[in-house]
Amino acid sequence: MNTKSKIHLTTVVIFLYFSYKLFALTLFHADHYTAALKIEDQWYSYDGLKERDQTGSGLTPISELKDIDKLLSCAIYVIDE
b/e for 29-55, b at 16 or more Cβ within 10 A? Predict the structure, then answer.
């Protein structure tokens, strides 16, 4: 049975007196990996396979992180300064 679920991640984590913000995700779908990353408070989806045809075409804005319909591989948090 193949079931799909939406990604639900905490965008801020506090650990040992430091606050961390979610910065990027690696995702798996259709036999290849893609990424989601945050640039200046805007989330983007990146698919390197689209870059083969036209440089710069792999990066597209995402309206909300919860709209991603792929398997989560890794979540990357950075210290919030």
Answer: eeeebbbbbbeeeebebbbeebeeeee
**Six-digit token string for 42:** 């805007």
What confidence tens digit (pLDDT) does each residue in 1-60 have? 344 445 556 666 777 888 888 889 898 887 889 898 888 888 888 888 887 777 777 888
